[in-house]
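On to my pick:
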Amino acid sequence: MKPARIPQIVSAPEHWAELPKGEYFRDALERQLKPWLAKMYGFHLLKIGNLSAEINTESCAISHQVNVSLAGQPIQVKADPLHLPFAEKSVDACLLANTLPWCSDPHRLLREADRVLIDDGWLILSGFNPMSLMGLRKLVPVLRRKSPYNSRMFTFTRQLDWLSLLNFEVMHYSGFQVLPWTQQGGKMLTTHFPALGCMQLIVARKRTIPLTLNPMKQSKAKSRIRQAVGATRQFRKP
């Protein structure tokens, strides 16, 4: 398994239109996100990365939505996603729409999102699936330097493991857009074979208590009350 952190920096596309059939990917992602955005409430939503900024989130009840990126349009806060200029536990939801694939240090990016999220805050991740038609095309040497094949592609298992270490509860994960060259992505194939989808979606929530209880710690927490010697004894004079 290749390390998640890499020394080289790959330029992320500033718009979905720069990707082959990028508008199809964006529309498909918006359809998958719509029912989950309707469940989110709060005060602040961060859209991290240029591709996140172009996602339509009107169905979300969070009115204050901020686009964060180093360059490109439309952005409102110019900042490095690895060093978010926000206080701890100040954001209700973070959207990373295909931000991890072009990030040189995905672990740090997830830790930054975890830092600024409030307790029970929402984290939305999307990316490309290595076990798909797009993943197979990444194996072609000629295509490796072109978008989106120059991006990182992480499996569901690896991403879910990262979220588990940060104590996130995964509410939903699925694949979609099995056929990347069609607008609907192959409805029948997506319904019956979502694992082959070229796009991935993970919706998770930040939890404050351990999701898996440690029986050793749990037994130590139960302190026994010792009975005081002679406290309940009654002595009678002969």
Observations:
- The chain has seven helices and seven strands.
- The radius of gyration is 23 Å.
- The beta strands are 44-48, 64-69, 77-78, 91-97, 117-128, 168-176, 199-206.
- Residues 22-37 form the longest helix (16 residues).
